[in-house]
From TrEMBL:
The lineage of its organism: Eukaryota, Metazoa, Spiralia, Lophotrochozoa, Mollusca. Keywords: Membrane, Mitochondrion, Transmembrane, Transmembrane helix. The gene is nad4l. This is NADH dehydrogenase subunit 4L. It comes from the Eukaryota. The chain crosses the membrane at residues 6-24, 31-55, 61-81.
Length: 101
């Protein structure tokens, strides 16, 4: 039983590392960064359900977590749309706080 538990933890650890690498490899597109954060939060949710899924009490917390995740992503999408309206693209390098803008 401990082997399957260690295998599950290793799988979740690999998924977290891959999602962090996905976020760090996106240097230009804001949409790619937002999607990377979405993947990271879904991996955290899957690991939470996998670890505490035996109990019935985290079900409500899981639903609250998913609802908050949807709210956060909708706000991020609205910010990205505002960025595209202002600058004309979703590239991260377009937004600079220098005086030459």
């Amino acid at each position: 039983m401990s082997v399957s538990c260690c295998g599950g933890v290793a799988m979740y650890l690999v998924m977290v590392v891959l999602s962090v690498c996905c976020i760090l490899s996106q240097r230009h597109s804001l949409l790619g960064i937002l999607l990377g954060f979405e993947v990271f939060s879904l991996v955290l949710f899957c690991s939470f359900v996998g670890v505490f899924g035996v109990m019935q009490s985290p079900v409500g917390l899981s639903l609250v977590f998913l609802c908050l995740e949807v709210c956060v992503m909708s706000v991020c999408l609205a910010l990205m749309i505002k960025l595209v309206k202002v600058s004309g693209s979703d590239y991260v390098g377009v937004c600079s706080f220098s005086d030459s803008y």
